[in-house]
Specification:
- The chain crosses the membrane at residues 37-57.
- Residues 1-25, 242-262 are annotated as: Disordered.
- InterPro entries: DUF305_CopM-like (IPR005183), Ferritin-like (IPR012347).
- Keywords: Membrane, Transmembrane, Transmembrane helix.
- The chain has 262 residues and is an all-alpha fold.
- It has two domains: 32-61; 67-250, Ferritin, core subunit, four-helix bundle (Ferritin), CATH 1.20.1260.10.
- It is 66% helix and 0% strand.
- Helix 2 (67-90) runs antiparallel to helix 3, helix 2 runs antiparallel to helix 5 and helix 5 (170-198) packs antiparallel against helix 6 (202-228).
Length: 262
Amino acid sequence: MSGATPTPEPSESTPQGVSQEPALSTRERWRTFGAPALAAVTVVALCLGVLLGWLAFAPRHPGDSSAEAGFARDMSEHHAQAVQMSVLVMQRTEDEDVRRLATDVVNNQEFERGVMASWLGQWELPRAREGERMAWMEGHDHAAEDLPPGVPMPGMASPSEIQQLTDASDQEAEVLYLQLMTSHHLGGVDMAQAVLDQASDPDVLALAGRMAGAQTGEVALMRDMLAERDAEPREDVDAWLAEQEAEAGDGAGATEGHDGGH
């Protein structure tokens, strides 16, 4: 028909059914597929790197059943009774030496209780224990010790002994306090040594070491103060102090030998 547009014949070089859209260049393929894929891989790699770095360097806090947590909870309770007895004797004697010792015990042990409470807060652990007291001290003699009724941990005074101290005055109160506090410190040093054997947290190790040293020194002081009052500790303190000195010497020798090997 006149005026009709002729239908173009298919090109011999283009097979029927094949798109005639121009092929993407190498640069266009890179922009379309390669760059986004590389970006995604990079993001994943960065995320993995951050995760691995956090796992490697994030602070690892002691767990709820750790020796550190058990020590912080039990020693806080142990300290609380030492503070109680020290306040009682300060109200019942005018002796300057006893009052000075009791004041030191209150100041030091209240400070240490605050430190241990802050640990539990930093570790996101409750202050209250769920299990038995001193369960973390497995392997230490005092952990399995049979205790008198009303005595929660070794070295602690019984309710009747606290009442005796409450009812006493002057030198009677001084002697009873020095005897009770000597026993108290023996139990406290054993707890400190137990956590030194088991813990790995540097802050716990440092504080426990200071506790053991300070309380050992106070045991020797209280032995002498009792002798001045014609009284004696309830335990063989001389043998205990000799044992502590021997263990300290063995530890120093082991350290020297280790250092000498370098």
